[in-house]
Design brief:
With about 100 residues, the chain is mainly beta. It is built from no helices and 6 strands.
Length: about 100
């Protein structure tokens, strides 16, 4: 992934990693006619995020060891531009209505 190697996970008060389960993965139905699968996830909202570090990216990752909860078990899936400057209000990552990922 091309990007700023010095970028780190934000630490603003009000931010926490989001955890999705299989029930959050909606519209996961193979489209045999077009030979693809479109995948959607719910919009993600962080409440009352304090001013501080600007956000630049939104990553969707897979934790391949849900029992450990360590960063070393997290595999990046997709990276999306997400430029936001927290101001103490809610922040919502609005996922496109067509889904966030298409596999062909």
């Amino acid at each position: 992934i091309e990007g700023d190697a010095s970028a780190a996970e934000v630490t603003n008060s009000g931010y926490a990693r989001k955890v999705l389960t299989d029930t959050d993965l909606t519209a996961f139905a193979p489209d045999d006619t077009n030979d693809r699968v479109d995948l959607d996830i719910p919009d993600q909202t962080w409440t009352g995020v304090a001013a501080g570090s600007a956000w630049t990216d939104f990553l969707v990752c897979y934790d391949n060891d849900t029992t450990s909860g360590t960063d070393s078990s997290i595999v990046p899936g997709t990276c999306h531009d997400f430029a936001v400057t927290p101001s103490g209000t809610d922040i919502t990552a609005q996922i496109a209505a067509a889904g966030y990922y298409r596999a062909s």
